[in-house]
Amino acid sequence: MAAFALVSWLFIAMIFFAQRAIVPALLIATVFPYLFLPEAFAIELPGLPDLSKTSAISAGLIAGLLLFGARSRSAVQLPVLKVEGRKFRFVLFSLLGAVVIGIVLTVLNNAEWLVYGRVVLPAMRPWDAIGRLFDLIILATPFFLARKYLATPETHRALCKALVLSALVYSLLMLVEFRLSPQLHNWVYGYHQHSFLQHIRDGYRPMVFLEHGLWVGFFIFSAVMAAAALWKAEKKSKWLWALAWIFIILMFSENLGAFAIGVMCLAVFFVANRKMQILFVSLLALAVVTYPALRQAQVIPLDRMILAAGSISEDRAGSLIFRINNEDRLLERVAQKPLTGWGSWGRDRIYDDTGSNIVVTDGLWIIMLGGWGWIGYIGFFGLLAAPLLFMSATARRKEMPPETIALALICAGNLIYLIPNATLTPIGLLCFGALAGFAEFDQLKQTADAVDEPLQTSRSAYGYTRFPQKQTLGQTTADLQS
């Protein structure tokens, strides 16, 4: 069933792009498969990256745009954008170049075999750089597509609506797992995607179809912020009710970290003024980018963090101590190859004399730093943090609606979440990319709202035919109303 779902999605994604305009198709073809395709499963393809949930999403987006993107542009007049954030664009592509250079240098600097008892880790070969670049393309596809097509306030509102509507659906599935335990993935695909024991708390922590209950918590946090933005922008009671319901779901989802981040971001969103909001997300982005250096310099108050965790429960304090000890040992390993890291195949891990791996890597920051060194880390995390660090400059150029501020807070919360976890998802990359496009581009001329209802709008509503005529969206909307 899992293999059938992954392969089928490639064709379903193309149907979405064939039937809908680019923006709603992009949103649906990213959010829907992320929430429902199988986890912890991949199809090995000879000479190509494995077909997993992440690669299936990116492949579906690329195939849909290549086959049907031109038709959609003819059927619907997209906003005309011009580059205004030239400094931001230079920084963005410089950081992307740093990631590519870091990959090449990492491969060149790891040409030796590593032997630990009975375990032999292969050297990295020149063609491994090509494989890692393919992995980068697969991972970054939602980011760069969002940068191009979700760069306006209207598309930010569409993204928020997609998050809220999908979270309302997902909340019903979470209720099932609250009561019956995390079983939906097992019922549909025939296996549990993660350890069942990790999801037994005072009750059950839902996983639904995501990698772990922590991923579910972060998705629900994102929807909470999106609902808050829609209510603040439109003042419609339906968004207030949605906010209240999704927040309650988050509160009972057994995700203390996501709940704490949610409360903090909601307070900043509703209480702080625009300057303070921008300062808040900028400082968080800067703190995450420099976090490894702060850890090595022993600036982070780890003792206070352990005491705070202990005040909640001994289990949480023990988990934090275990995580910190593992990170300290991995940082010592990084210090042996600080610029390039150790590359793939588990070469960044620590092994005992029998060849058993004796460390656990959870946070994306230590995974990136150990695998690709400081060059790759700064390049990759810099790409994510750059839209937040440039928000002050962007705000001097144009207004920032509530939806854009909410996306910034979602991204800031995501960066915090990447310290203890590797929760960088296609939906999160859509948010980062949408902010990057907002910082880089300005809209030349206004068009009617082409994306206000992202989950209902189809090409037929815009007069799409097999032979599309040149027609502006404003004219088409007027025709529909008449």
TrEMBL record:
Keywords: Membrane, Transmembrane, Transmembrane helix. The chain crosses the membrane at residues 53-70, 90-109, 129-146, 212-231, 243-270, 276-294, 374-393, 405-438. It comes from the Bacteria. InterPro entries: WaaL-like. The keyword Lipoprotein does not apply. The keyword Lipid biosynthesis does not apply. This is O-Antigen ligase.
